[in-house]
Each structure stands twice: as structure tokens, then as C-alpha cells.
């Protein structure tokens, strides 16, 4: 089948609401082997909706529409779909009872306007909505189909997964299965060059690189009759990519870099403390996103001033006077100092110039020194980042975590 996603709502057109429904539906339809040809946004207007339906069916067999199933007069999606197919709306008793029960349980009186949510074409497949008052529906005529779904994601997503997917699977004899490899430490261009022959020679599965704010990803997607067959197609391609990119791959699918690092720390019972200047506590805040990190994360110190570096971490005044706060020497003493004060096996530090001002020829904006003190050994690295203050701090945080990940691999894999 070929599909078009139509998102209904003037608030989407005005930019008041982010259209996450289209993203979700595109992924889910692709996963069951249905090609999405177009995505359209249309306001709460019958004439424009009818035109959108007409244009979609010139190219597609299936329309999936979200929004416009509420009780107000401008909620017109279901009514317009029925009009397009020349189908009369009649009361659907089961939906009527559900809406009445929904109001009774919440201690409210059912408004007359809500009654319209219980009306559907006689031959429509009505989709129950346990999370709201607006049922969805599948309308069909000849070889064309319109699926109407509620707009709120908490209602739309379970309805689509639990009812629409099983229904649509009968129209597809293949499925798409994807595996995402998450990469940090090399840019998209370098990565693409390393595996250019794999990308250029792709057919099934396909390999697609994506550069994101936090990392780079490779999506390997196979089309097959079932998931087992698709996984078998993916594996040799994945193995070849892992051989080329090695430790630059930190995880797969939805895993985050901080999750990988936190798991390594916890599983190896490696205690850690952080001392941050330019990152302002971002490393600590990122690590504690992981439930269970309290087993090994002892404390985080934001030592922004020279006085705090000396008093809290024991950085020598001579070091600061001779080399400055943004230096290899200061970073090393910060990491050693926090590990000693907190009694941890690992100390990690950052000191740098996040900007936008304060830089010089010798020490420009974006210069960051990091140090890792681990079981008595101190390592220091120098980085130069570009971008806004926020971006420099974020990139410093992610690079610190990735560097720690690589050091932990060396330590525990040898």
C-alpha cells in the first residue's frame, strides 16, 4: 500500500503544536511495509480537507489522518471523510455507551456536543479509545481507505498500535525492521568515508547515516517476510560496520551515551566524582539521568572560581598563577583533587572558555581541558569546540563521557 499522512489542525499550521504524530506514524507505517509518499498539514476547514483527500488519493491507497475528532463544531475530520466517501453517519451504540461511561466516571455530565463523537458510517471499523472520548475509525470505499485518529498522542499512539497496525498488516506481505548503531568520536563525513563501499553497495538491507545534535547514527533497515528473516539480513552488514568503526560505536537503537557509561561504572563498581568549571555541572546532571547511578556516583562539584578550585579541590595557587585556570595542569589537579576529597576511584574534570567573551589568541573561546583520574593515573586532553556557549558546554560534556567510556573499555577489556 501507498500512504499519505494528513495532520489536521489550525494550531499545527500556526506552529503552536509540534507535529510529533506524523513522525510516529511514518515510522510505524514503514515498519509494516507501507510506503509513505507524502505528509500534509491542513487546517480545520471542510473544503480544504476534501481537497487534501482528493490530492492524496491521486497517488495513494491509504490516508491516515490525525486530529479533528473532538466535540466542537470545527472538529470535522470524521465528518469530512464520510462526506468524501458519500457515507451517512449513524449512531454507534458501543461508542455512545463508552462516552457516557467516561463522563459518569469523571463525575461530569455528558454535553450534547459530545454526542457527535459517537456517530460513524454504518460500515466503518470503529476503533475504541480507552484514553479519551473520541473513537477513531477506518472508512473504506472501493480500493481506498481513510483512517481517522484522535490528535492527542496519548490517545492516538495506543489506538494505532493496538488496532490499526493489526488491521493494515493484512495488506502487506513484507515488514521493515531497523537497527540503529550509535556513534561518537568521529564526524558523519569520516564515518561515511570509512564505510562508503557498504553504503554505495546497499540494496537490502539499506544503510543510512544521520548526523544528530548529540551523536551520529547509522540505520540499517531490512525488508523481509518476518522479523527473523530481516534480522538475518541485518547481521552480516552490522558485523562489517562494527569491524570498521570499532569503539566509535557506543550503543544501538535508543541507548544514550550516559546510559552506556553509567552501566559500565555500576557493573564494575567504579566510584566517581566530578569537578566542573565551564560545563557547570552538566556531566554530573547527565550521569544522574541513569537510575541506579547512586551506587557509584559520590558527588559533583561546580568549582567555577579560582578560590573554589583551591579550597574545594586543592588546586595549587602556584598552578593557577603560572598556567591559569584554563590549562592542562589545572584540569589534572582538579580531577585528582575531587577523587581524593570524595574518596572515589575516578575523578573527572573540565575547565575551559565557553564564551561568548573572555577568549584570547592563546586561549580562544571553545578551548576546554579535561582530565580523568582513574586508580591513581591522571590523563589530560585538550579540545577546541565551535559554536554557542550552550553548544560548547554540551559538546564538552559528551566528549568527556565518551573519553571516559573509552578509558573504561581499555581498563576492563584488557
Automatic annotation (TrEMBL):
Query: What highest taxon heads this organism's lineage?
Result: Bacteria
Q: Which InterPro entries match?
A: CinA, CinA-like_C, CinA_C, CinA_KH, Competence-induced_CinA, MoaB/Mog-like_dom_sf, MoaB/Mog_dom
Q: Where is the MoaB/Mog domain?
A: 4-171
Matching CDD domains: cinA (cd00885)
SUPFAM superfamilies referenced in this protein's UniProt entry, alphabetically: CinA-like, Molybdenum cofactor biosynthesis proteins
Entry similarity comment: Belongs to the CinA family.
Protein name (database record): Putative competence-damage inducible protein
- Species annotation: Clostridium fungisolvens
- Taxonomic path: Bacteria, Bacillati, Bacillota, Clostridia, Eubacteriales
Amino acid at each position: 500500500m501507498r500512504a499519505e499522512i494528513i495532520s489536521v489542525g489550525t494550531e499545527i499550521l500556526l506552529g503552536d503544536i509540534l507535529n510529533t504524530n506524523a513522525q510516529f506514524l511514518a515510522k510505524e507505517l514503514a515498519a509494516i511495509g507501507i510506503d509513505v509518499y507524502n505528509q500534509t498539514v491542513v487546517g480545520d476547514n471542510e473544503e480544504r480537507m476534501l481537497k487534501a483527500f482528493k490530492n492524496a488519493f491521486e497517488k495513494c491507497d491509504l490516508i491516515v489522518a490525525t486530529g479533528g475528532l473532538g466535540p466542537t463544531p470545527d472538529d470535522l475530520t470524521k465528518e469530512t471523510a464520510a462526506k468524501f466517501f458519500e457515507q451517512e453517519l449513524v449512531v454507534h451504540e458501543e461508542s455512545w455507551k463508552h462516552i457516557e461511561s467516561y463522563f459518569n466516571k469523571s463525575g461530569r455530565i455528558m454535553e450534547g456536543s459530545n454526542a457527535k463523537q459517537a456517530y460513524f458510517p454504518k460500515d466503518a471499523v470503529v476503533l475504541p479509545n480507552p484514553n479519551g472520548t473520541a473513537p477513531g475509525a477506518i472508512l473504506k470505499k472501493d480500493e481506498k481507505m481513510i483512517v481517522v485518529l484522535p490528535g492527542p498522542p496519548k490517545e492516538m499512539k495506543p489506538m494505532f498500535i493496538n488496532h490499526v497496525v493489526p488491521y493494515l498488516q493484512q495488506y502487506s506481505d513484507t515488514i521493515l525492521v531497523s537497527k540503529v548503531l550509535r556513534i561518537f568520536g568521529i564526524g558523519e563525513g569520516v564515518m561515511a568515508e570509512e564505510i562508503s563501499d557498504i553504503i554505495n553497495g546497499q540494496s537490502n538491507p539499506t544503510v543510512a547515516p544521520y548526523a544528530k545534535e548529540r551523536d551520529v547514527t547509522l540505520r540499517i533497515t531490512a525488508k523481509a517476510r518476518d522479523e527473523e528473516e530481516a534480522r538475518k539480513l541485518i547481521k552480516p552488514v552490522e558485523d562489517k560496520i562494527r569491524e570498521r568503526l570499532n569503539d566509535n560505536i557506543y550503543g544501538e537503537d535508543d541507548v544514550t551515551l550516559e546510559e552506556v557509561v553509567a552501566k559500565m561504572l555500576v557493573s564494575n563498581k567504579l566510584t566517581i566524582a566530578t569537578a566542573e568549571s565551564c560545563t557547570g555541572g552538566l556531566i554530573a546532571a547527565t550521569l544522574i539521568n541513569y537510575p541506579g547511578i547512586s551506587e557509584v556516583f559520590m558527588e559533583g562539584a561546580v568549582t567555577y572560581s579560582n578560590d573554589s578550585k583551591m579550597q574545594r579541590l586543592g588546586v595549587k595557587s602556584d598552578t593557577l598563577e603560572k598556567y591559569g585556570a584554563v590549562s592542562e595542569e589545572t584540569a589534572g589537579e582538579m580531577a585528582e583533587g575531587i577523587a581524593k576529597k570524595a574518596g572515589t576511584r575516578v575523578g573527572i574534570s573540565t575547565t575551559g572558555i565557553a564564551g561568548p567573551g573572555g577568549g584570547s589568541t592563546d586561549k580562544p573561546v571553545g578551548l576546554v581541558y579535561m582530565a580523568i583520574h582513574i586508580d591513581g593515573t591522571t590523563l589530560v586532553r585538550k579540545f577546541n569546540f565551535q559554536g554557542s556557549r550552550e553548544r560548547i558546554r554540551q559538546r564538552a560534556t559528551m566528549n568527556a563521557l565518551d573519553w571516559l567510556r573509552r578509558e573504561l573499555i581499555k581498563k576492563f577489556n584488557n
